[in-house]
Specification:
about 130 residues; alpha+beta; 3-stranded antiparallel sheet
Length: about 130
């Protein structure tokens, strides 16, 4: 499916049903909606770390549905692409966050902006007896 992961097509479980919505006789008779299921928990194509990562992020069975197009063949392609995208996203490792500190200038600007804002608010007050 991707550069680091390849899944045999016989591991995929395809189901077809009628799409909902308008479409007349074609929509009522053609099974164009595609549901694609992939049992990640028992897949021999995945390595142990890949399996663990996919099950942790997506669950033991990954399910995608495509009913966007009127053609079953096109919906098959869409479902396969959606599965590919979901698995790739689950296997992607995020770069670790490196905490940073604000620079001295940024801290000074923040304090100065707070002081200016305080001056503006002080200027809006009703004059007291000493003014």
């Amino acid at each position: 499916m991707s550069g680091s992961c390849s899944i045999a097509l016989d591991e995929l479980d395809w189901r077809f049903s009628a799409s909902g919505g308008p479409g007349g006789q074609h929509a009522n008779t053609a099974n164009t909606r595609v549901e694609l299921r992939f049992d990640a928990a028992s897949s021999p194509s995945l390595g142990p770390r890949q399996r663990e990562r996919i099950v942790e992020r997506l669950g033991p069975v990954v399910r995608v549905v495509a009913s966007d197009r009127r053609s079953q063949a096109r919906n098959r392609e869409l479902a396969l692409e959606r599965l590919r995208t979901r698995l790739a996203a689950a296997l992607r490792r995020d770069a670790p966050r490196v905490p940073t500190r604000p620079t001295a200038r940024a801290r000074a600007e923040r304090v100065e902006s707070k002081r200016r804002r305080g001056d503006v608010k002080r200027g809006r007050r009703r004059p007291g007896p000493e003014d």
